[in-house]
Amino acid sequence: MLIKTNRSKLLRGDDIPGSEITPEQAYINRRKFLGRSATIASGAALGLTSAGAYAGLQPDDDITPESIVTSYNNFYEFGTGKSDPVQYAHELTTDPWTVKVSGEAKKTGEFAFEDIVKGITPEERIYRFRCVEAWSMVVPWDGLPLKAVLEQFEPTGDAKYVEFKTLVRPDEMRGQRGFFSNIDWPYVEGLRMDEAYHPLSIMVVGIYGKDLPNQNGAPWRLIVPWKYGFKSVKSIVSIRFTKRQPRNTWQLLAPHEYGFFANVNPEVAHPRWSQASERRLPSSLFNPNRRPTLPFNGYADEVASLYDGMDLARYY
Ligand code: MTE
């Protein structure tokens, strides 16, 4: 079994995390005060892979403080409150971690997490993150291009979709015990293969230059920045390539409220609230920090063509 430090070394791709080169606050402030072009330069100065790293960011997209990103969470396996995950996710053990790969692919079976991720270099991607509940953040993720992860398993021509499932372990995930929620575990999500292969789609293994905390989905979770946050399934133990569109958890729970595509769309309201604007965290009563929501969460130039000819009000 690998110890934690070995794992982070393996995932980081080098021995020195960005956070050690530049103190975190300085790195956030630099981005905040110098604006976007300086942001790219500082990324380069940190030796980070920059391709696509800053796509979609607006000049006023300050990085959200780490303390908020790691303590205001949705992870119903630990409870439905925003602070339940940070309080209880330490009860989860993530080492060893095994991933089952199945369905329409040549290489299927049980794989050790380390074996899947080795050889793929993590890239820092600073993305806007928009929850369907109308709050948002800007997060520096360390992610593996999802395409590189999936291609290893050689999906066949019949693989039109890919489905991901979260761990079910009620002993360590207290939200899965008893009657806390009506979710039929495991939490399931899916993407069309062309969405999964898009260069912006990543499997996240770290944030702020550190290992991914349990409450954010350790040891790895999906991030697809143009979609609502519920697509970004956490603590993944199953990858299945399918011919048919998988049924995702929130769509199963409330099909008239949540769809399969879940592309961020200010023009399609949730039945119970508008999606036209969002509350950028941190926000308060006196500084609500509200801003307009952008189509595809600001990534329209990169991804709108994936949905050419589709009625986005129907396929929400
Ligand atoms: N994945 C699992 N397994 N369980 C969950 O409850 N919540 C989703 C998504 N992934 C969720 C999940 C929702 S609704 C959101 S907004 C994001 O995780 C929140 O990610 P964060 O806590 O890292 O901000």
Brief characterization of the structure:
The protein is built from ten helices and twelve strands. The protein is an alpha+beta fold and 316 residues long.
Kindly list the characteristics that best describe this protein.
alpha+beta, disordered N terminus, binds ligand MTE, 5-stranded mixed sheet, 316 residues, 7-stranded mixed sheet, Sulfite Oxidase, Chain A, domain 2
Largest sheet: 7 strands, mixed
The helix content, as a percent range, equals 10-25%
CATH uppermost class: Alpha Beta
User: Which CATH-level-2 architecture?
Assistant: Alpha-Beta Complex
Order of helices and strands: HHHHHEEHEEHEEHEEEEHEEH
The CATH topology is Sulfite Oxidase, Chain A, domain 2
The number of domains is 1
Spatial gap, N to C terminus = 43 Å
Hetero groups bound?
Answer: ligand MTE
Number of helices: 10
> Stretches where pLDDT falls below 50 for ≥5 residues?
1-49
Integer-rounded radius of gyration: 19 Å
If you average the pLDDT, what whole number results? 87
Bulk shape: globular
- Number of beta-strand segments: 12
Architecture overview:
The protein has helices spanning 4-12, 18-21, 24-45, 66-69, 84-88, 113-117, 146-151, 193-196, 249-253, 300-303, and strands at residues 98-103, 109-112, 123-130, 135-145, 161-166, 188-192, 202-207, 210-211, 221-223, 236-242, 277-280, 290-292. The radius of gyration is 19 Å and the shape is globular. The termini are far apart. Mean pLDDT is 87; it is low at 1-49. The chain is an alpha+beta fold and 316 residues long. The protein has one domain: Sulfite Oxidase, Chain A, domain 2 (Alpha-Beta Complex), CATH 3.90.420.10. Bound molecules: ligand MTE. Ligand MTE is lined by residues 73-77, 131, 166, 187, 216, 229-230, 232-234.
